[in-house]
Design a protein that fits this description.
With 291 residues, the chain is α/β, with parallel strands linked by helices. The protein has a single domain, classed as Vaccinia Virus protein VP39 (Rossmann fold, 3-Layer(aba) Sandwich). The protein has helices at residues 6-9, 18-31, 43-57, 65-84, 100-103, 118-128, 147-158, 177-188, 203-211, 213-217, 248-254, 260-265; strands at 89-93, 111-116, 136-141, 164-168, 193-201, 240-247, 281-288. It has a seven-stranded mixed β-sheet. Helix 6 links the parallel strand 2 (111-116) and strand 3 (136-141). Helix 2 packs across helix 3 (43-57) and helix 2 (18-31) crosses helix 4.
Length: 291
């Protein structure tokens, strides 16, 4: 009998939530550097041995650590500025193993809401049980694909603060464009949701990812799907407008994280037009279109 392909034999990702352990590996590795762009002292334990296995067995699972690190850094920086400008609550959709309420210096009164599937939140609670968050942290177990339950929750949260910021880090790429549009409109329907930080990929990058890592992830229901041809402008028909867009490559190159040839590529001016077929990823700050 013919032997299976190595990647089939070593398939360790069980579901979409396991991608959070994969992401935590890169936060842990960055945190150990003397020149770290951020410090996440909880990432190594949160990633666990499974996170390392995933990074080491997925096709190109370790090849783009610089992009994961730059994404975390940009989210941190953008979030900190928004809090300084009056944001009162963060709603972290598909929060995964994000430890920002523990590792960031947040006001004690600040409300941080984590929403994700029960299994991943219970796992995180078990790891962090001996640690205390720096702010008012609440975890809500919810399948975000349950649209009616999601809308009810967003409406309830809308009553609890006047200036709310939404985080979707590593979520939208797994959704169909129609699902992203519906989510964006649901959030925009809540008047106190003022800002939204999300990451975004170009169609060119999406196709590259689908040929490598995406081939395995699709087998566990974690296919890469969302990369709009119009880029951040996609959200303009959903109640949002881009306020700031920052590319991952240029950010990572400032800290000399990518390979040398990519750092040279980062010296080129970045086009203001949508990347389209060109590989690109970045972090976008969105604001309400009615403001």
């Amino acid at each position: 009998m013919a032997s299976e392909k190595p990647e089939q034999e070593r398939m360790v990702v069980r579901n979409i939530s396991d991608t959070a352990r994969w992401a935590a590996v890169f936060r842990a590795e960055e945190s150990e550097r003397p020149d770290a762009m951020f410090r996440d002292p909880y990432a190594k334990e949160l990633a666990g041995t499974l996170g390392l296995e995933i990074a080491n067995t997925l096709p190109e699972g370790n090849h783009h650590a610089w992009a994961w690190v730059a994404r975390t850094y940009l989210f941190d920086q953008c979030l900190q500025r928004e809090i300084e400008q009056g944001t009162e609550m963060v709603v972290n959709l598909a929060a995964g193993l994000d430890a920002r309420p523990y590792r960031m210096n947040l006001p004690a009164w600040f409300q941080w809401i984590e929403i994700d599937l029960p299994e991943i939140l219970s796992y995180k609670e078990g790891i962090l049980t001996a640690h205390r968050p720096t702010c008012q942290l609440e975890r809500i177990r919810l399948d975000l694909s349950n649209v009616d339950a999601r809308r009810k929750l967003l409406n309830d949260l809308n009553q609890r603060a006047k200036k709310i910021l939404v985080l979707t880090e590593g979520l939208l790429i797994y959704l169909e464009p129609a699902e992203v549009a519906t989510l964006a409109k649901d959030v925009a329907a809540c008047s106190h949701f003022q800002r939204w930080i999300t990451d975004l990929a170009s169609p060119g990058l999406l196709r590259m990812m689908q040929r490598t890592t995406g081939r395995q992830l699709s087998k566990v229901g974690a296919s890469f799907k969302f990369a709009p041809m119009e880029g951040p402008a996609f959200f303009q028909n959903c109640g949002w407008e881009p306020l700031q867009v920052q590319g991952l490559l240029k950010t990572a190159a400032r800290f000399k994280r990518p390979p040398f040839f990519l750092r040279m590529l980062a010296l080129l001016p970045e086009s203001q037009k949508p990347a389209g077929k060109r590989p690109w990823s970045g972090v976008c700050l969105l604001g309400r279109a009615d403001k």
